[in-house]
Amino acid sequence: MNGGRLRTRKWVPQKGDVVRLKSGFDRSLEGIAVRRAGLPLSEGALYEVVGCARGETSLVLMLSQVRVVHVAGVRHVARTGSAPFPYISERFELVPED
């Protein structure tokens, strides 16, 4: 859809955006710490932004894990049952709507 535009403009997270972790997170020390802390973060998963707040040094996203399904050409976002949790926005990128 907006492949070129997403790369040229800085993404500003908004409620309702579907995001994913940037590549390399699972293999980083931060990724290992997140798994030990029990947060449901994985590079293969999708998350919906359910809220945003300005933290001390960066924007903090309130996330909920979701699945995206296309039915008859219409995109549907369904929550997977995980409780919303906060995490810093720099680790995520917007998922194009295809």
Separation, N- and C-terminal Cα atoms = 6 Å
Question: Are there runs of 5+ residues with pLDDT below 50, and where?
Answer: none
Domain count, please report it. Answer: 1
How many helix segments?
Answer: 2
Reported for the largest beta sheet, the result is: 6 strands, antiparallel
Query: What do the pLDDT scores average to?
Result: 87
Using the alpha-carbon principal axes, give the shape. Answer: globular
Structural class: alpha+beta
In terms of DSSP E residues, the strand content is 35-45%
Which series of helices and strands comes N to C? Answer: HEHEEEEE
Task: Please count the beta strands (DSSP E, at least 2 residues each).
Answer: 6
Helix residue percentage: 10-25%
- Rounded to the nearest angstrom, the radius of gyration is 14 Å
